[in-house]
Amino acid sequence: MKKLLYITTIILSIAIIVLGHFHWNSKINDAIANAKANAEPLSKKDETKEESVKGKESELDVDDLTKNLSEKARMLVGGAIESGETIEVALIGSEAQGMGEAPWPELLQIGIDHAYGEGIFELKSYDFGEDHSNVAIYKEKMADIVDSQPDIVLLEPFIMNDNGDVGVKDTIEAIKILERRFSESNEDTVFMLQPSHPIFEPQVYAMQVEGIKEFAEKEKITYLDHWDNWPDVKDEKVRDYIKDDLSGPNDKGNEVWAEYLINYFTGK
C-alpha cells in the first residue's frame, strides 16, 4: 500500500512539472507575440512622424526664402532648418524698437513665422533706451547678450541717440568693438546693421546715417537700409510715421520698418 502511494506521488510530481513547463512556454510565447504586435504599430507611428517632419521641411523653399541673405547667413539658416535647431536673433537698439501698439520686432517675428513656420526663428529684442553707442557697448546687459552667443545680431547703433552728442567716428568705433566681441564669443555669429528711424529733413543726423552705411559697405557688413521703405525724408509725409517728439516710429512707422525686414528675411 505504501509502495503504491509512493509511486502515485512520483507520477503526480512528474505530471505537475510537465504541465508547468508547457504552461510557462505558453506564457513566454504569448509575451513574445504581444511584443511583436505592439512593436509594429510603434514602428509605423515613428515612420509617420518622420515622414511628417520631412514633409514640413520639403514644403519650405529655403533657397528662395534666404535669397536676400549673405552666403554665411544662408548657410546658417539652411543648416539650422535641416538639423531642427532654432535660430536665435538678437535685435539690439534704442528705445525706438519698443514703441507703439505693435513694435516692429513683434511684427517681424510674426512675418518670419508666417513664412518659415513657428519655432524656427526666435527673436529677442534688447532696448538700451537713450544710451549713446559708446556707453551701451560696455554695459553688463550688453555683455550678457554677447555671452548668449546669438546666431544673428541685428544692431541699430543708436545713431539717433548719438546725434549731436557723439560723432559718427566714435559711433563706428563702438560698432567695431561690439562686432569683435560677438565674433570672439562665437565666430559663426552673423552681424548686421540697420539705421535708426528717419525724421523729416535730417541734417547732421542724415550725415551720420550715411557714414554708418558707407562703413558697412566698406567692411562688407550687411546693412539693412529700411529707409527705402519710408516716405522720402524731404517729404512731410514722413511725419505721419514718426512720434511727435521724434523719439521713434508710431504704428505706421513700425509697419513700414517691419515690412522691409520681413521682405529681406523671407526673400521678397
The CATH C-level name of the largest domain is Alpha Beta
Please count the helical segments.
Answer: 10
Please name the CATH topology of the largest domain. Rossmann fold
Overall, the morphology is globular
Alpha-carbon distance between the two ends: 103 Å
The strands making up the biggest β-sheet line up spatially as 2-1-3-4-5
Order of helices and strands: HHHEHEHHEHHEHEH
Classified in CATH, the superfamily of the largest domain is: SGNH hydrolase
Number of distinct beta strands: 5
Count the domains: 2
Average pLDDT reading: 85
Helix content: 55-70%
Question: What's the CATH architecture name of the largest domain?
Answer: 3-Layer(aba) Sandwich
Structural class: alpha/beta
Q: How would you describe what is shown here?
A:
The protein is an alpha/beta fold and 268 residues long. It has two domains: 1-59; 62-265, Rossmann fold (3-Layer(aba) Sandwich), CATH 3.40.50.1110. Helices cover 57% and strands 9% of the residues. The protein has ten helices and five strands; from the N terminus they run H-H-H-E-H-E-H-H-E-H-H-E-H-E-H. The chain has a five-stranded parallel sheet with strand order 2-1-3-4-5, sandwiched between helices. Helix 4 (104-116) runs parallel beside helix 10 (251-265) and helix 8 (168-185) runs parallel beside helix 9. It is globular. The protein starts with a helix and ends with a helix. Mean pLDDT is 85; it is low at 1-57.
